[in-house]
Amino acid sequence: MPTSVETVNLADARRIIAAAEKKAAEIGQPMNIAVADAGGNLVAHVRMDGAWIGSVDISIKKAFTSRAFDIATKDLAPHSQSGSQFFGIHASNDGKIMIFAGGIPLKKGDKVIGSIGVSGGSGDQDHAVAEAGAAAL
């Protein structure tokens, strides 16, 4: 009998995005916020007023990356530098891999059920907004 996969749904994504938007507003930095499901597929995306257009794609790819490897993108970054074990990983998956802060896996217990990707500020700002969104799950 097939087992069902637990995943982020649209209601979850909306709640996560709302919490992330609130944090972005608090720090005064408009952001692009993407939420992906357990398969790494986009569930929802928001581009806050004034957020960079170029960061739409980056936020979606950060969400994909954090789900594809079940790791925060800020934690993947040091391992992908020249001479490190994952050097060149950013060129894999048809260029969909983002190796800087702002992507976080979304977990229920120990199981990854989706991810959030945030882009539009500094790496620290993107990660903080992603953390605020993840906490709403």
UniProtKB/TrEMBL annotation:
<dbReference type="InterPro" id="IPR052517">
    <property type="entry name" value="GlcG_carb_metab_protein"/>
</dbReference>
<dbReference type="InterPro" id="IPR038084">
    <property type="entry name" value="PduO/GlcC-like_sf"/>
</dbReference>
<dbReference type="Pfam" id="PF03928">
    <property type="entry name" value="HbpS-like"/>
</dbReference>
<dbReference type="InterPro" id="IPR005624">
    <property type="entry name" value="PduO/GlcC-like"/>
</dbReference>
<protein>
    <submittedName>
        <fullName>Uncharacterized protein GlcG (DUF336 family)</fullName>
    </submittedName>
</protein>
